[in-house]
């Protein structure tokens, strides 16, 4: 198939960017979207032009490295749980024009072309997205029973790949879906209970400092390559409220 | 070079306790005075960096990714082994040890493997405590499944995302230490050289992948957890950026490289579909629990699947290996698939493919049970091939997947450069000539959580006050040599892209140093690689500059190292005149099965760098089997 692609090119964080148009000819419909870009890049470099920079690694939809706005949609499709690297050219038609941009969010400055800095998401994890257990201090695994349904629900949340599509698609640039996925993964499990309140308070604080605020557009859920449910945001909000109330009262621990 | 394996004396089951009891300790109050560099934050690196931080060391962790959580480990699907015996099916530490030794075709160290089996149970405990959502039974207990090469059910899993969930556990532990200030994280930094002062590893040289700045970092010890090297084949199941540069630089600074020819070709991957192909996708081995592998009995049988009657199908694994059937180990299953394709019975457009069929399982268990077990894998297959595996069998073919070879390390995981430790897939330690499924995650985490954090103290205790500043000549020289290499790559200004060279190298390796190797082919490959490498430095085209993000430059350096490693792989494969595990020399076989030569090759081949253009020197670490009796590996 023959396509025309308009790609955002930007030399560095400070430089001004803009769209450049390339033709992507003789592309196999079985190629992935990134393989299409590979082909375009090889041709560009043969002509002496620098390749389009984009981030990628696993190419299986699990590492969360890839991600670009394709015709205004994060990862290029809605509602079918695909990351950019899993999108195949058969989703397009011969002769299509495709607009390709980096994630657009205040918290994700462009580094080069389609590469952005998503470091803010790691900061949210650092704030409390873990269970504090040092190596060696764990009890025998089956001492702790976790109902299958709870484990399944926790796994749904834990499936997040931290690609940032939710933030990029959100008109406010909010990171609620990402944060709530981690808060819920850990907060659902019995192991996560001791730090549950503190965790949600700390993670939300960093999230609010760095990202926009959520007004429940629901755009995040539509583009999430792991189909993380927006229900987790509701869950996080409830947890947050409960935690704010009890910590405000300086909850007294019965001993 | 003297290879001291440092295996503690005494009975196998007591060696690890013995080792721990004799290690020198670092006083807790002194730990923060030691700087440790950890390169890599996959399962091995992240678990090590976090655990070292918890112990109080001052850790600096480097990755080329934008976040530690992107490491290739994230892609592991199937599961992790542990000898918990929750199934009451006769499993034990000893059995896991034995299966792994046998699976590795008797080319691994007994002591290491035993320790690995012992620690396997602690890994599960640790991961569960961190909140890793492993699959559970209805009673709330942990669930298990079977994997290739064994007859017990000891594999723990989290849907098809076990690597992801285990890595997130380690990543979160690491982020916690970053927040606490014990670990300083350097993302988008690529290690390009190891700095050795008076024979000891004292630091690294990195390139900042955003600014291009080349810098030195000093420390009291350096830990490499930088992953495997099968991207030397260009097409593999590994993440695109996985590469050998870190361990290759260490090799050139004096760290012996062990068994480079032991590479694993995984039987169940989606076949290549065109020239644009950038990687091969693994379909987890767990699928072989319920899927049956077959090809038509007749050559070039192009009838639609449903029209091929049962009697005209050859379930070749079940036929050849009745007791293990579709769960035969990877090396054996891969070779069997190659064989039937070589006979002209392969399926799919290229004729390089075999069926993995779930029709029987769906009939027996119902579609929803299969969906629950493998749903995400089936979806992945569908996304890539546009075929529906619930209705038509998957087509699969072997692909490069894992490197058993790697930096030689002693029992304490230290390389032949004192102070330079190597963990995870990057070292050679535990899998012999073939790795069993669900054992890499186990090894990476055993190394990172439980072995290295303890064993490194033994070395550090003697290094108090021996830190070398990063502005001394050893460091400035290393910086200069990295800069020189970078500018040579940029100034070649040739006519061919890095990828075009890499593809060509990959084809040579696949054809001559892949699933079946011969003396003649390996010699030919060596000549071809040398010629291509020479052309590479002359004719490679790397655009842009070194002072900005430059993905071609990053690749160019990695491919330059792959060329050298490829040659060493051929040298090693040529010298090993036997077949063992993943290393199959066509000259050495018996009724189509690998034929080992224990009289001549019962050793680890540790290659030593002797300078540019000079042949590497072979050092041998004899393998002593005290516990297990050497036997011909049989899965019949
Ligand atoms: C598709 C797939 C599925 C698999 N499934 C399973 C499974 O089910 N069970 C199992 O046991 N095993 C499985 N494996 C194997 C297993 O995943 C790997 O062997 C293991 O994860 C390797 O972990 P690691 O920590 O050694 O290295 P990696 O995870 O590869 O991490 C390497 C790290 O080093 C960094 N790095 C590398 N070089 C440099 C450098 N020069 N400078 C700076 N940083 C550097 C990277 O940024 C990264 O952080 C699978 C492998 C694949 C490919
Ligand atoms: S490249 Fe890993 S998720 Fe797309």
Description of the molecule:
- The complex is a heterodimer of chains A (255) and B (636).
- Chain A is α+β, with helices and mostly antiparallel strands.
- Chain A has two domains: 3-112, Beta-grasp domain (Ubiquitin-like (UB roll)); 118-254, Alpha-helical ferredoxin (Fumarate Reductase Iron-sulfur Protein, Chain B, domain 2), CATH 1.10.1060.10.
- Chain A is 35% helix and 11% strand.
- Chain A is built from eight helices and seven strands.
- Chain A has helices at 33-46, 119-126, 148-158, 165-169, 176-188, 196-210, 219-223, 231-248; strands at residues 3-9, 18-24, 69-70, 73-74, 97-101, 110-112, 115-116.
- In chain A, the strands form two sheets. Chain A has a five-stranded mixed β-sheet with strand order 2-1-5-3-4.
- In chain A, helix 5 (176-188) packs antiparallel against helix 6 (196-210), helix 5 (176-188) crosses helix 8 and helix 6 (196-210) packs across helix 8 (231-248).
- The model of chain A has no long low-confidence stretch (mean pLDDT 96).
- With 636 residues, chain B is an alpha+beta fold.
- Among the domains of chain B are: 265-401, Alpha-Beta Complex (Flavocytochrome C3, Chain A, domain 1); 489-602, Methane Monooxygenase Hydroxylase, Chain G, domain 1, CATH 1.20.58.
- Chain B contains 16 helices and 21 strands.
- In chain B, the strands form six sheets. In chain B, strands 5-2-1-9-17 form a five-stranded parallel β-sheet, sandwiched between helices.
- In chain B, strand 1, helix 2 (43-55) and strand 2 (58-62) form a beta-alpha-beta unit.
- The longest helix of chain B has 25 residues, at 551-575.
- Chain B starts with 14 loop residues before the first helix and ends in a 14-residue tail after the last strand.
- The mean pLDDT of chain B is 96.
- The chains are: A alpha+beta (255), B alpha+beta (636).
- The structure holds flavin-adenine dinucleotide (FAD) and FE2/S2 (inorganic) cluster.
- The site of flavin-adenine dinucleotide (FAD) has 44 residues of chain B, from helix 2, helix 5, strand 6, helix 6 and strand 15.
């Amino acid at each position: 198939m023959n396509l025309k692609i308009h790609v955002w090119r930007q030399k560095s964080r400070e430089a001004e960017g803009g769209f450049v148009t390339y033709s992507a000819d003789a592309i196999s419909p079985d190629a992935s979207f990134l393989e299409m870009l590979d082909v375009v890049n090889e041709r560009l470099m043969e002509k002496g032009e620098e390749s389009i920079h984009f981030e990628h690694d696993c190419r299986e939809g699990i590492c969360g490295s890839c991600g670009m706005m394709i015709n205004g949609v994060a990862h290029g499709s809605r509602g079918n749980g695909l990351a950019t690297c899993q999108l195949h050219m058969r989703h397009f038609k011969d002769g299509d024009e495709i607009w390709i941009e980096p994630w657009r969010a205040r918290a994700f400055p462009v580094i080069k072309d389609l590469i952005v800095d998503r470091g803010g998401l790691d900061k949210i994890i650092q704030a409390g997205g873990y269970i504090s257990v040092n190596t060696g201090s764990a009890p025998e695994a089956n001492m702790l029973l976790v109902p299958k349904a709870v484990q399944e629900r926790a796994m749904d949340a834990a499936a997040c790949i931290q690609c940032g599509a939710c933030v990029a698609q959100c008109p406010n640039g909010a990171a609620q879906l990402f944060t709530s996925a981690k808060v819920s993964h850990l907060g659902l499990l019995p192991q996560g209970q001791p730090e549950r309140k503190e965790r949600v308070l700390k993670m939300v604080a960093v999230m609010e400092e760095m990202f926009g605020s959520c007004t429940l557009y629901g755009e995040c859920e539509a583009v999430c390559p792991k189909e993380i449910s927006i229900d987790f945001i509701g869950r996080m909000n409830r947890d947050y409220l409960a935690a704010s109330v009890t910590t405000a009262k300086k909850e007294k621990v019965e001993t | 070079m003297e290879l001291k394996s440092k295996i503690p004396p005494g009975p196998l089951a007591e060696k690890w306790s013995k080792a721990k009891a004799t290690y020198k300790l670092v006083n807790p109050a002194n730990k923060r005075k030691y700087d440790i560099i950890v390169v890599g934050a996959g399962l091995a690196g992240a678990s090590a960096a976090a655990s070292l931080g918890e112990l109080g060391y001052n850790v600096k962790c480097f990755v080329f990714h934008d976040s530690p959580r992107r490491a290739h480990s994230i892609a592991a699907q199937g599961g992790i082994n542990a000898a918990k015996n929750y199934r009451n099916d006769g499993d034990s530490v000893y059995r896991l040890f034995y299966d792994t030794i046998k699976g590795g075709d008797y080319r691994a160290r007994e002591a290491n493997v035993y320790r690995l089996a012992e620690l396997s149970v602690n890994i599960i405990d640790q991961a569960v405590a961190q909140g890793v959502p492993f699959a559970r039974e209805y009673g709330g207990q942990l669930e298990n499944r079977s994997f290739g090469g064994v007859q017990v059910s000891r594999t723990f899993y989290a849907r098809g995302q076990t690597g992801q969930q285990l890595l997130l556990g380690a990543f979160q532990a690491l982020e916690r230490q970053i927040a606490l200030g014990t670990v300083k994280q350097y993302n988008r930094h690529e290690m390009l050289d190891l700095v050795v002062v008076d024979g000891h590893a004292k630091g690294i040289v990195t390139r900042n992948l955003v600014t291009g700045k080349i810098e030195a970092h000093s420390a009291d010890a350096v830990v490499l957890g930088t992953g495997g090297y099968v991207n030397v084949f260009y097409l593999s199941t590994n993440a695109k950026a996985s590469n050998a540069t870190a361990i290759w630089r260490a090799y050139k600074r004096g760290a012996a490289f062990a068994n480079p020819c032991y590479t694993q070709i995984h039987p169940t991957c989606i076949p290549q579909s065109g020239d644009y192909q950038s990687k091969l996708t693994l379909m987890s081995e767990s699928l072989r629990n319920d899927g049956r592998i077959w090809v038509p009995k007749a050559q070039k049988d192009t009838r639609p699947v449903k029209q091929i009657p049962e009697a005209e199908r050859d379930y070749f694994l079940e036929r050849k290996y009745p007791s293990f059937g579709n769960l035969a180990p990877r090396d054996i299953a891969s070779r069997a698939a190659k064989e039937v394709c070589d006979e002209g019975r392969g399926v799919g457009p290229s004729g390089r493919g075999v069926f993995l069929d779930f029709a029987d399982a769906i009939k027996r268990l119902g579609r929803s049970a299969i969906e629950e077990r493998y749903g995400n894998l089936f979806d992945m297959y569908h996304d890539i091939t546009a075929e529906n595996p619930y209705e038509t069998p998957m087509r699969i073919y072997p692909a490069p997947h894992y490197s058993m070879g790697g930096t030689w390390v002693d029992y304490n995981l230290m390389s032949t450069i004192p102070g330079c430790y190597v963990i995870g897939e990057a070292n050679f330690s535990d899998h012999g000539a073939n790795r069993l499924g669900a054992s890499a995650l186990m090894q990476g985490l055993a190394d990172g959580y439980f072995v290295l954090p303890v064993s490194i103290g033994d070395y550090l205790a003697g290094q108090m006050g021996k830190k070398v500043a990063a502005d001394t000549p050893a460091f400035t020289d290393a910086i200069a040599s990295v800069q020189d290499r970078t500018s040579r790559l940029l100034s070649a200004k040739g006519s061919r892209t890095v990828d075009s060279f890499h593809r060509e190298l990959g084809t040579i390796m696949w054809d001559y140093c892949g699933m079946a190797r011969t003396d003649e082919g390996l010699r030919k490959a060596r000549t071809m690689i040398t010629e291509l490498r020479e052309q590479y430095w002359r004719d490679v085209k790397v655009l842009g500059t070194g002072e900005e993000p430059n993905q071609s430059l990053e690749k160019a350096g990695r491919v330059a190292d792959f060329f050298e490693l490829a040659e060493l792989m051929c040298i090693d494969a040529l010298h090993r005149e036997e077949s063992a595990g993943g290393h199959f020399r066509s000259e050495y076989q018996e009724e189509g099965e690998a034929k080992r030569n224990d009289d001549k090759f019962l050793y680890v081949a540790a290659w030593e760098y002797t300078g540019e253009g000079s042949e590497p020197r072979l050092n041998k670490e004899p393998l002593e089997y005290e516990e297990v009796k050497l036997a011909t590996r049989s899965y019949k």
